Amino acid sequence: MRQALEGSQAIARAVALCRPQVIAAYPITPQTHIVENIAKLVADGKLVCEYVSVESEFSAASVVLGAAVAGSRTYTASASQGILLMSEVLFNIAGNRVPIVMTCANRAVGAPLSIWNDQQDSMAVRDAGWIQLYCADNQEAVDTTIQAYRIAERTELPVMVCVDGFTLTHTLEPIDMPSQEQVDAFLPPYHFARTLDPMKPISLGTLVSPDFYPEARHSHHQALLNAAAEIVAADADWCALTGRSQGSLVQVEGDADASVAILTLGSVIGTLADAREMHPELGPVKLIRLRAFRPFPTETLLQACAGVTDLVVLERALSPGGGGIVGAEVKAALFDMPNPPRVHNFAVGLGGRDVPLDIYPRLLQTVRSQSPRPFAVFDVDLDKLPAEDR
Amino acid sequence: MNMHTHTPIPIADLRRSQPRFQGIESGHRACLGCGEALAARLVTEAAGPDVMIANATGCLEIFTTPWPESSWRLPWMHSLFENTGAIAAGMEAALKAQGKSTKVLAFGGDGGTFDIGFQSLSGMLERGHNVLYVCYDNEAYMNTGIQRSSSTPHAAMTTTSPVGRDRMGKRHLKKDILSIIASHHIPFAASASVAYPSDIRKKVRRAMEIEGPTFLLIHSPCPLGWGHDGALSIEVARLAVQTGLFPLIELERGELIGTMPLRQPRPVTDYLRLQQRFSHLFKDDSRAREELEHLQALAERNIEYYGLKGNHDDPCDSEGADTVRRGGQRWA
Amino acid sequence: MIEVRIHGRGGQGNVVAAYLLATAAIDEGHFGQAFPAFGAERRGAPVVSFVRIAERTLRRRNQVLQPDFLIVQDRALLKVPGVLDGLRPGGGILVNTSLDAATLSEQVGSAVVTLPATQLARTHLGRPVPNTALLSAFLTLTQILPMDALTRALEQKFRGDILERNLRLIEAASQQVAAGQWKERAHAAGA
């Protein structure tokens, strides 16, 4: 049913539809409205679950881990500093192969302190071993949250649903909320094979010596690579049920035969898409959005880049002293192509700087007038910095 | 002579002639009537200029330091939410190693102290660092929009402890942080309230004199979060004390050595009814009545446990607070 | 596409205003989008929010730099640099003030429409929250949505006495501005 909903509100309702039994809540901008909306559902008896107001994000992640291995479907949400604080637990959850779903309301990481949107937080934990899915809009946030539970429980891998903070969480737009019947048809009750149970006691989280450690890590890596199939299947099955697909692993739009392409993650695709429609005179451009970042969708990306000679990688984070994070991974994936595209790698909108529509013509201008430089922050205003810092 | 003759004095001149040290400058971004802003000003005034401050994430650091401006006239750092005790400990260790007299102050809200920052606070206290930790207690995570912390009082409404069909606000009791602090057997710990500014100054000066860990819990109303007009902050804070819900006590090495006695304890409803966050307790509802009884019982338990009821009438018991009307116009 | 920028102070229901307007549009079958520009908000601090209303889905998420209409919830904000920036030629400015339009227009250097929204709110709501009155005036001026759409949006948000008072408030506010004064302008923008 098409409704006007704020992103956080829609996500909260999507979570409630998935019937979690334990929710850990800790406030952090810009995810807070999600846990507040859930608190109200619980207070009004509309969602029956154990709502645990924890004392920190470290505990939020730990509470859902404990609950998940004890046999309950769970939920928590965090952002920025909270993601970093719980990072040790994130590695622990993934390494223990526990199916947990979490919303990351993407926000910059301090210092400098910022409450605004970029993707530094989820990028900083890309090695924790979680599936990471990035949403373009709030409809996708709803649909992907629901799909995430199925993906997590089938793959025994935790899923981080990344939603741009403020840009999506605090935007009201039309949302088609699925019904409880649809979600119940899609999501079976929580099942975790290694649930702790007095009737069949097992031990989780044991010390692993060098005799077996590499095998465990290999199997985790393989599981993530294999999860791609589940991500594809979940999107296809959800589409069959609702008529909506969210792009599977990689969403490609625009001019299929274009030799220029712009690749990005998350909601900035919307601004690029509208700008592209406003500028047909700038020639054909393909827009590539990575929905899945972990597992990294190499095959699908290679297909999308067939015939592309100039690829702009526009990302929302960076690795100081290194350069672009997505850029580096994209270049690595394209390395063995017979004619890989030239990659122009930029970060934009760091710390919530508004990304205007004219980013599109300016990016294309840059591509056409220069050979690729090393990574740069596209919208930096060097005049604001003293000479020695430029 | 007419005592009311008004001679205009330029504010700048007046300030220069006052012996008070101003650690926080005006122009910060706090809300009207913010208890925490007042408390921080009183603390830094009493502590003087030879201090170094570690400040947790929260309202105070946000409204005092919007880059490129800062209201602090003192060396100050904000790091993260959970590590203030540890940052302060590090500062103290360095100053000690350098043989400097500068005293370290740690500032945190209730969220950053009772909850996420508890571990590092406990570590700092246990190791005996010479730090005064001040917790500005506005009883919720206010900076993120009023979510419950373990300091939120029982039955208070916050956005994560809302009122609804199945809930009457926060289910759990306000964490008794001072008992936990007492168990660390530190030289001095106390509770204070912005309704009693001289008492705050006195307690800060006492802590400043002590070589070792000290802790101050300052009750700081938040008009937005508690749901009252900014002009009522002091009155609300005073009533919290006068009902027994927020007792003012002093502890040395875990032993109770002082309290602010209550001449005439007020019923908790006098305090609760002024705040929107308790408005659900005044509906015609048996659960509401039950919660009011709970809160009254908590207050009475405090009065008994801490021996707050003075034995005789003494106008100085509550620093004459009962004789000062709201707004407190005084002769300059 | 119509783009509106709403300037207010923390505590004046700025974001709620944007959300209500977009909700009303969505309920009428249009595309609506609303979001705030966040600062570290304090009561009284300047806040801004944005609304887009269109016939087809818009996917952009940039801030509204060239609004067709400005709603200013507090006259004092007119002195804040940038508040009037980017207003499209012929664009409408609606200001919450008890000052008369002619005087304020001269002060501002642009034609403005005025509404004593705070006063109206005090009368009908008992609280000085000007947002719903301003929305009602905005819809009356532009005619981009029937007032009924705003009513339905309010019903989603409020109940009981507060709802009733708001409904009376929006009725009163709509009487205080010239219906359709901005209709052509709104139509030109693509209503």
Task: Give a concise summary.
The complex is a heterotrimer of chains A (390), B (332) and C (191). Chain B is an alpha/beta fold. Chain B is built from 12 helices and 10 strands.
Q: Which SSEs are present, and which pair or pack?
A:
The complex is a heterotrimer of chains A (390), B (332) and C (191).
Chain A: E1 2-6, H1 7-17, E2 22-25, H2 32-43, E3 50-53, H3 57-69, E4 74-78, H4 80-85, H5 87-95, E5 101-106, H6 120-124, E6 131-134, H7 138-155, E7 159-164, E8 172-176, H8 180-186, H9 213-242, E9 250-254, E10 260-264, H10 268-278, E11 285-290, E12 292-294, H11 298-304, E13 310-315, H12 325-334, E14 342-347, H13 359-369, E15 376-377
Parallel strand pairs in A: 2-3, 2-4, 4-5, 5-7, 6-7, 10-11, 10-13, 13-14, 14-15
Antiparallel strand pairs in A: 1-8, 6-12, 9-11
Helix pairs in contact in A: 1-2, 1-7, 3-5, 7-9
Chain B: H1 11-17, H2 35-47, E1 51-55, H3 59-64, E2 76-78, H4 84-97, E3 103-109, H5 110-115, H6 118-126, E4 131-137, E5 163-164, E6 167-168, H7 177-182, E7 188-193, H8 197-209, E8 214-219, H9 223-226, H10 233-243, E9 249-252, E10 255-259, H11 268-272, H12 286-305
Parallel strand pairs in B: 1-2, 1-3, 3-4, 4-8, 7-8
Antiparallel strand pairs in B: 5-6, 7-9, 9-10
Helix pairs in contact in B: 2-8, 4-6
Chain C: E1 2-9, H1 14-27, E2 31-37, E3 46-54, E4 69-72, E5 92-96, H2 101-108, E6 113-115, H3 117-125, H4 131-142, H5 147-157, H6 160-174, H7 183-189
Parallel strand pairs in C: 1-4, 4-5, 5-6
Antiparallel strand pairs in C: 1-3, 2-3
Helix pairs in contact in C: 1-4, 1-5, 3-4, 3-6, 4-6
Features:
heterotrimer; B: 332 residues; alpha/beta; Rossmann fold; eight-stranded mixed beta sheet; two-stranded antiparallel sheet; 12 helices; 14% strand; globular; C: 191 residues; Pyruvate-ferredoxin Oxidoreductase, domain 3; six-stranded mixed beta sheet; 6 strands; 19% strand
CATH evolutionary superfamily of chain C:
Pyruvate-ferredoxin oxidoreductase, PFOR, domain III
Strand content of chain C: 15-25%
**In which order are the strands of the major sheet of chain A placed?**
3-2-4-5-7-6-12
Which CATH architecture of chain C? Answer: 3-Layer(aba) Sandwich
Query: Uncertain runs of chain A with pLDDT below 50, 5 residues or more?
Result: none
Placed side by side, the strands forming the largest sheet of chain C appear as 2-3-1-4-5-6
- Residues in helices of chain C, as a percent range: 25-40%
CATH fold description of the largest domain in chain A: Rossmann fold
